[in-house]
Design brief:
Elements lengths: L2 E6 L3 H16 L3 E2 L8 E6 L4 H16 L8 E6 H6 L1 H5 L5 E3 L7 H9 L4 E3 L22 E5 L1 E2 L10 H5 L3 E2 L2 H13 L4 E5 L7 E2 L2 E2 H9 L6 E5 L8 H9 L6 E3 L7 H6 L6 H14 L4 E8 L6 H14 L3 E6 L7 H5 L6 H25 L4 E9 L6 E5 L5 E5 L8 E9 L3 E6 L1
Parallel strand pairs: 1-2, 1-3, 3-4, 4-5, 5-6, 7-10, 10-13, 14-15, 15-16, 19-21
Antiparallel strand pairs: 8-9, 11-12, 17-18, 17-20, 18-19, 20-21
Bound molecules: 5'-deoxyadenosine and iron/sulfur cluster.
């Protein structure tokens, strides 16, 4: 049996895809190994979202090739977004034997067989239909608590900075019946939380089932199954969805709502298709219906031509919303995108870096303030396992997505526990069992 080792980079969608890849390969007689030194096939499931993500992977490719010295037949493959973006250039580098884009995974057994005969292989065909809906993912964390379920692929938004529509192709929704079945399978296997994944879940539509309908169907699998989802687009998140969330106690009160910028001119240039006011109205609606809802975001600083004043609008929208957490980046030009073709990447690197530091410092304060508001409150948390720092402690998240740790020798992963917040850091709620 040939052993396959895969390293996964980038978003949660890639983690879900790696589980699909393992499912496809193990059906064809391959086995999974977590020990890179024992692998006959080493692959990276890659990310292209920012240049530094790709640079890191080039470094890994060189490292993978090092194992050839001891293992002459070793196959090195690149999957995912970077495979799709760079295509033949990856093969031409002479460093890899196999390049497969996000819609080519069903072909992997055939591609690997051809590589074994000594012929490098590439398949970067994108599909309008592929959702891998019939494939039961091989979960990477056996006996785990929380699973990802991919509900759609691709993206039709074409935000001007973003490479994803080019690497993942057109948007398509997976049959809701296969999604509900997968959620049932997860629950039966002991999972207590599923996260429904899509680049823009609010535009999910299969036959007449929209995302709010799908969320309700998954929530009805069991009241003991927590349901999360990501990512929402501010222009598409509907009142119906917000109201559906509120109807199901097992749908976690957490929305990841990437703002990207707080300035209307920049939002327009990013082709986000909402305004600052629209975004704030959506936040108001969410809080009106679910006052305890966690809200997190993504933001980019130093986008093409962003002035200091425009950057201040991003700081002020962070302050106004009071995010619980955020992912923050400086703009990285991606070849082929609308922005790279139309606008010069003209904010100097030192300005980008300084703005990013300023935004991160602000968010650190907001995260701490958000956690302080929870002091003394009680939450039902789902135990994920022992805490990383202290084996006598367990960790788990609140519905709103905050990490809790507490001393506990009676509960285990998958249990629900009621805890009270005694203290906090910016990243964690320090609790006791109630
Ligand atoms: N440069 C920097 N950040 C980016 N993101 C997407 N494209 C870029 C880019 N070219 C960020 C966005 C998105 C998150 C996944 O990555 O904030 O929401
Ligand atoms: Fe990276 Fe985006 Fe591809 Fe996910 S979809 S792997 S974040 S480029």
């Amino acid at each position: 049996m040939k052993k396959v080792y895969i390293e996964t980079y980038g978003c949660q969608m890639n983690v879900a895809d790696t589980e699909v890849v393992f499912s496809i390969l193990t059906r064809e007689g391959y086995s999974r190994t977590e020990d890179i030194a024992k692998a006959d096939v080493i692959m990276a499931n890659t990310c292209s979202i920012r240049d530094n993500a790709e640079q890191r992977i080039w470094g890994r490719i060189d490292y993978f090739r090092g194992f050839r010295k001891k293992h002459p037949g070793l196959i090195v493959g690149i999957l995912g977004c970077m495979a799709e973006r760079l295509k033949d250039a990856l093969l031409d580098s002479g460093k890899v034997d196999l390049v497969a884009g996000p819609d080519a995974y069903r072909n992997l057994p055939a591609l690997l067989a051809a590589v074994s005969e000594g012929h490098p292989q590439i398949d970067v065909e994108l599909s309008r239909e592929e959702t891998y809906g019939d494939i039961k993912p091989l979960r990477l964390d056996k006996g785990g608590v929380s699973a990802f379920i991919s509900i759609m692929r691709g993206c039709n938004n074409v935000c001007s900075y973003c490479v994803v529509p080019y690497t993942r192709g057109a948007e398509r929704s997976r049959d809701w019946k296969s999604i509900v079945r997968e959620a049932c399978d997860c629950f039966a296997a002991g999972y207590r939380e599923v996260t429904l994944l899509g680049q823009n879940v609010d535009s999910y539509l299969y036959e007449d089932v929209d995302f709010a309908d799908l969320l309700a169907k998954v929530a009805e699998v069991s009241p003991l199954l927590r349901v999360r989802f990501s990512t929402s687009h501010p222009k598409d998140i509907s009142d119906k969805l917000i109201e559906t969330m509120a109807r199901y106690p097992n749908v976690c009160r957490q929305i990841h709502l990437p703002v990207q910028s707080g300035n209307d001119r920049i939002l327009e240039k990013m082709r986000r298709r909402y305004t600052r006011q629209w975004y704030l109205d959506r936040v108001r609606k969410i809080r009106e219906v679910m006052p305890d809802c966690g809200i997190s975001t993504d933001a980019i600083v130093g986008f093409c031509s962003e002035t200091e004043e425009e950057f201040r609008d991003t700081l002020s929208i962070f302050e106004e919303v009071g995010y619980d957490s955020a992912f923050m980046f400086f703009y990285s030009e991606r070849p082929g995108t609308l922005a790279s073709r139309n606008y010069p990447d003209d904010v100097p690197q030192e300005v980008k870096t300084r703005r990013l530091e300023e935004l991160i410092a602000l968010q650190n304060r907001l995260s701490l303030e958000s956690n302080r508001r929870d002091l003394g409150r009680e939450f039902e948390v789902l135990v994920e396992g022992p805490s990383k720092k202290d084996a006598a402690q367990l960790c788990g998240r609140t519905g709103s997505g905050k990490m809790c740790v507490w001393t506990d020798s009676t509960h285990r992963a998958g249990d629900y526990v009621r805890v009270r917040v005694q203290d906090c850091t910016q990243a964690t709620l320090l609790c006791e069992v109630v």
